[in-house]
Amino acid sequence: MEASYLAFILHVAFVARLMQTGFYLIGMWYKRSEAQKRFSFFFSSASLAGAFSGLLAAALSNMNGIRGYKAWRWIFIIEGLLTVVVAFFLFSAIPDFPENAKFLTERERAFVKSRIEEDQGKGALERPITFRDVIKVLTDWKLLDLTAKQVIAAGFMYFGLIVPAYGKDVSELDGQNLTAE
Fold first, then answer.
1. Among 15, 82, 107, 166, which is 20 to 30 Å from 131 by CA?
2. CA-closest candidate to residue 22, choices 1, 6, 52, 43
3. How is residue 66 annotated by DSSP?
4. What gap in Å lies between CA 113 and CA 123, rounded to an integer?
């Protein structure tokens, strides 16, 4: 299997689920009227992270040749190590449901749970997801419409921004700096 196919599979399996998981967790803790602002902050943080990632990669590209590794390897090693360390910390620090939060008292858990139930109905822990629920979500016209619009927008972005850049003579360092703009 070529490395590009493996990278695509790993991206779909892990990275592409980040936004959905974040939105799901936010939805487990806040009423719908409160969650919108948190969704906006969470979504905006991805753009900000992309800008700083380019700056970090530009700085790390100065490590070219250290210990016999090229700059791109240092970028993968250091950014990957940082990601793994943060992931281990957050895996134990972020509770999935208010019912499981160890930092809340029993009274606080009941309060959060009652607010969510008032707004959304039964909690996800009390109501298992059935195959019928999955089909209902996958055939929802609003979700299908949003998916189609995202695919079209991503296509325009790819062919409007990425493809023209293939014809430019940009150094590796300039390319990293351009991602921060």
1. 15
2. 43
3. G
4. 7
